[in-house]
Amino acid sequence: MSRPKEPRRPAPPPGLLIVDKPAGMTSHDVVARARRIMGTRKIGHAGTLDPMATGVLVLGIERATKLLGHLALDRKTYLATLSLGSSTTTDDAEGEVLTEGDPALLAKITDEQLATGVAELTGDIQQVPSAVSAVKIDGKRAYARVRAGEDVVLPPRPVTVYRFDVLATRREDDRIELDAVVECSSGTYVRALARDLGAGLGVGGHLLALRRTTVGPFTLARARTLDQLEETPELSLDLDAAVAAAFPRRDVDAAEAQAVRHGRAIPAAGIDGTYGLFAPDGRVLALAADTEGVARSVVVLLPA
What we know:
This protein is an alpha+beta fold. Helix content is 22%, strand content 36%. It has eight helices and 19 strands. A hairpin with a 5-residue loop joins strand 17 (275-278) and strand 18 (284-291). The longest helix is centred in the N-terminal third of the chain and has 12 residues, at 27-38. Responsible for synthesis of pseudouridine from uracil-55 in the psi GC loop of transfer RNAs. Residues 191-231 form the tRNA pseudouridylate synthase B C-terminal domain.
């Protein structure tokens, strides 16, 4: 006799989950678990984190997945521990050791030399991404090419390191460890900063630990662990609050709201970039952008 089917859970409301990712999980692993917790397949993530890294990972739920490609997540902050004295295949602690620096040379590195090396990696710089990264070469991820045995050399690209402040320095016989806060543009690899700092000092370097504390407007203060989410499967921000937090806001009248819901243009707002359109009742209607004197919807979030 067949068992009766369990009633399907209703789909969760659309919005964002701000997850405090644990170490050892890929961003895809986090999405898979969140799908089970929230009871929906419609979950995506913005701004991946390496498995060894922890901290802020932004997930979109249901209709909020449409926001992910438009979120201004171009400024990120990390707490990092850098190890100087050896380089690795992955530029972090999970790779195999490639080179080991001379302990005598390591012992001669002064705090002033460290400060100079850090300063050279601050501001607008050209950075070569780690070979084991998600950067695509001819449509294939760099890390996949490395795993296939290919020699991968990526071209440098411009990134911005807004802040690279050393918080603490620990000296051991075979290494110097630095705790630092790094605020940088999207596309910056903190492990490449560790690699390049060590290379510049002639002793090699790699990333020991990484915790992301902010992504755009989203911080650890709002983030929850997966275990906390398991206990209370609720959104961090509903769709209205998510758009209000992440985009400039424009409130429209009832007639304009009706036009937006039917996909029609309305008068331009004079706002740079993408912004949120909100109905008189406070609900978000769409993401829009000004073009040729009118505001056109980029993504309609509350259609007619």
